[in-house]
Structure formats: structure tokens, C-alpha cells
Amino acid sequence: MPETAAAVTRTPSGRLALAASPEQIALGPLDGRYQSAIAPLVDYLSEAALNRDRVAVEVEWLIHLTSNSVLPGAGPLTAEQQDKLRGIVTEFDAAAVAELAEIEAVTVHDVKAVEYYISRRLPAIGIENLTAMVHFGCTSEDINNLSYALGIKGAVEDVWLPAARALVQQIEGMAEENRAVPMLSRTHGQPATPTTLGKELAVIAHRLGRQLDRIAKTEYLGKINGATGTYAAHVASVPGADWQAVSKSFVEGLGLTWNPLTTQIESHDWQAELYSDMARFNRILHNVCTDIWSYISIGYFRQIPVAGATGSSTMPHKVNPIRFENAEANLEISNGLLDTLAATLVTSRWQRDLTDSSSQRNIGVAFGHSLLAISNVAKGLKALDVAGDVLAGDLDTNWEVLGEAIQMVMRAEAIAGVAGMENPYERLKDLTRGHRVDADRMQEFVSGLGLSADAEARLLALTPGSYTGIADELVDHLK
Predict the structure, then answer these.
(1) Angle at the Cα of 305 (from 302 to 310), degrees rounded to 5?
(2) What is the rounded average pLDDT of the residues 21-38?
(3) Number of neighbouring beta carbons within 10 Å of residue 291
(4) What are phi and psi for residue 195, nearest 5 degrees?
(5) Which pick of 36, 47, 152, 379 has the fewest CB atoms within 10 Å?
């Protein structure tokens, strides 16, 4: 059948409009190409999850007020009634999301839609007389700040932090496995005092782990104190209640830390602190990606090919370090958002403006790009083999790195009274700077220094591969 203008939507260029497809097409990669990697965050930081948390906060506030007999005439609910109220939250599903959207289309206010959504369900529970208690004394931000805190807390503790911890443990395992594998260091990109691969991996794990320990100690603050943080409506309606105590016990009952002093909004300082810590973790992980990428490029790691995968569309020999490159990009995007959130959320005009409302809707995107990067790094590390022969060969062609050891032994000998140990640095500089020195030339030089027998024996036994100090022991600091 020929198409009709009414049946087909096209773009100005004449192409079929993908936006008109009956299947929803994602605009961004997190909800499209990479959806499976970040799916767990949907239960905490999506719009639907935010609405579910709003419902939860409203329900718990109603239960809290009735349980404490704060309002005259509103006695405690039965256990069955409380269970049914909480069932509104536990059974929140796609139909609930759709119903809320329909209500909001009329109210043009997301939190008011939640209030009406809950009120509709009170008659079935037998408590329609308590409809006026839904959202009692609350401004929208009372519900929102607590809902965001619950969602962010869940996302950190249940999704992001476990994934980050697992990655650090993976790196710790690699550090332990390679603790004694000698490796040439490069300071300023130039050959330097050797280390071990395990010790360098341990440095990474230690740095990342410190940031995770900070993040794990995050305080998630919340408030419920009215339109300008003064409990004005609360006191006007029920002057005899200890509203600060009611507020504090409610917030703490949600597993959050009570903030006693706010404007209309909870100040979001804790969010800025969290996002700064997460961004620092991301930056360290970005440094890990660039270092591993560089080690791959000089052959220290071999990448394990994936059956059927294509490294290059034209060069069949290539196995590209795409996991680490992908992670770099996603960490940069995540940090762009985290830095912006940390900078903007701490500022609000006088008692309230709505810039934070729009900003906070991007928290899930910031978390998502970080989580995707963590996933890619973990997969990338699993596909690496240590090229021990390349590491050993690199060390064997850089005997000049023993110059540091020799001149320090000469200094120690001079202090001990051994003659002929003058100008050790300058003598080693003349021998090694800008020159490649092989084993024979280095040992010939050592033999001609006039060292004590013990010192000479130690230096003649030393090789670039054995000049790693206590690097392997330092890995024990991860335990």
C-alpha cells in the first residue's frame, strides 16, 4: 500500500523519523548501546526510581506522624494498614509510573502528582479520613531532598561502590601475582631504577582504595522542616508538638543524617563532597587507563584476542586496547558532570531556586559513565597477559640504571673510610649519561673502583632485574 502523509512521519530531509518509531529509541548511549552495563542504577537514579522514593518518603511520613500521635485525632495505624501503605512502594511498577505520568500531566508538578497518587489508594486501605495527612507540613523539597538522598545512597552502597571495590580487588590480585616480577621504571619517560610490576599495581590499588574508603564514609543528609526551614506551618497547625524531634527521628529512621539548619532546600553540601571524592577516584582510574595503555604499547602486556572480534577494519593484525580507551572517555564525561554538580549544588539564591532540580536529574548520568568505565577497565584487565620476556629484555638492555646503586655504594664506602671514592656521582655520570652500558662494561667499571671486597661482591652480583629493593615486600601493605 502506498504510504500516506498521515501514516508516516519524516524529517525535514525526507528520511523516516526514528522518533516516531513504536519502539522507544534511546538518545544517549547509557540508555542504548551501554544499557546492560549500567542497568542496576535504574533502580536508584532513574526518574521512575525517584518517584518511587518520593512515594516511600510520603508513606513513611504518614506512618511516622500517626505512630507518634503527633496530630490530635490521628491515632496509630494498625500493622495491616501500615503493611498496605508500604505495599504501595514495594509493588510500584510500570503501571504506577504511567499513572503518575498521567496525574503529572494535569498537575504539572511531580511531587503533587505523588501526593494525589497516594491519596487515591487510601480508601482501599480504609484510611481515607487521613487524606489530609498525606504531605502534611511538607514543601516539595522536603520530599525531594530525602528521596534523592535515599536514591544516591542506594546507588553508591548497592551498585557503584561494590563494582569499584571489585575492581580494586582485581588489581590487588594482579599485584600479588606479579609482586616479584621485575620491571624497568620510567621517570620522565626515561629508564630509571627498576621496580616490580606487582609493586606498581599495588600503588594503583592503594590509591583507589583510599578514595573508596572516603566514599564509604559519606554522610547522606536530609531535612523535613517546611517551606523555609522554620517549621512555621507545623507550629501553626500543631503548636504543642516537638517538631524538631519529630523531624530528626523521621530522617534518622530513613537511615540518613538529620540536617537541623537549612533554607527551603537541604544545602547539598554532602552531595558536593561525595561527587568530589568520586571524581578523584575517576581521575586516578583515568591515570591507570593511560598507564596500562602505555604499557600495552611498549609490549609489557599482551592482549588476549577475543574470538571473532575485529581490532581494526583494515589491519587484521591489530588488537586495540579499546576497553581502556572507552574507560578514559567515560571517566572524562563522568567527571565533567560530577565537577559541575559539585560546583553548582552548593549555591542557591536566598531561600530557594530551582537550578538544583534540573542539575540533580543528571546524577544518574554521572554515575552511569563512571560505572561503565569501571566495567570496561575490569574487562580490559582480564584480557591481559604479562609479557615476562619483554620485561626481562628491557631490563637487560638498560644496565645504566645501576649507576644509582654504584654511586650510593661509593658514598657509603667513602663514609666508612675507603680511599679513592671521590666524586662518585660525577664518575657515574660520565660513564652512563647518554650512553648504553652493557653488563661487561658495568662490571669492568665496578671492578676498577677499589671498593671493599664485600661492597664489590654485592655490586658485581647486582643486575637490573635484581635491583628492585624491597618492592615485592611493599605489596604486603595491601593486606
Answers:
(1) 125
(2) 91
(3) 13
(4) -135, -160
(5) 36
Residue-wise pLDDT for 207-246, tens only, equals: 999 999 999 999 999 999 999 999 999 999 999 999 999 9
Give the position of cell 526551614. Answer: 229
Tell me which of 36, 188, 313, 435 is the catalytic residue: 188
Spatial distance between the Cα atoms of 164 and 202, rounded to a whole number of angstroms: 15
Work out the pLDDT band at 308, boundaries 50, 70, 90: low
Q: Which residue has the cell 671521590?
A: 422
Q: Which of 237, 312, 447, 466 is catalytic?
A: 312
> Per-residue pLDDT for 6 more than 70?
no
Q: Which long-range contacts (CB under 8 A, 24 or more apart) does 467-471 make?
A: 467/193, 467/194, 467/401, 467/402, 467/405, 468/182, 468/194, 468/195, 468/196, 468/199, 471/179, 471/195, 471/196, 471/198, 471/199
DSSP conformation letters of 52-68? HHHHHHHHHHHHHHHHT
Closest C-alpha among 128, 106, 109, 110 to residue 119: 128
Q: Which domains, and CATH codes, for the chain?
A: 42-136 (1.10.275.10), 141-232+260-306+316-387 (1.20.200.10), 399-463 (1.10.40.30)
- Whether 188 is catalytic is yes
How big is the chain by its Cα radius of gyration, in Å?
32
| pTM of the model as a whole | 0.92
**What angle separates helix 140-154 from helix 269-297, to the nearest 10 degrees?**
30
What is the pLDDT averaged over residues 385-394? 97
- 125 three-state secondary structure: helix
pLDDT at 3 over 80: no
Q: What's at 117, amino acid-wise? A: Y
Residue 351 near residue 139, CB atoms below 8 Å: no
Neighbour count for residue 6 (Cβ, 10 Å): 6
Q: Is 135 a catalytic residue?
A: no
Can you read off the three cell numbers belonging to residue 182?
621485575
The per-residue DSSP string of 217-270 comes to T---EE----TTSS-HHHHHH-TTS-HHHHHHHHHHHTT-EE----SSS---HH
Q: Is the pLDDT of residue 105 over 80?
A: yes
Residue 217 CB: number of other CB atoms within 10 A? 8
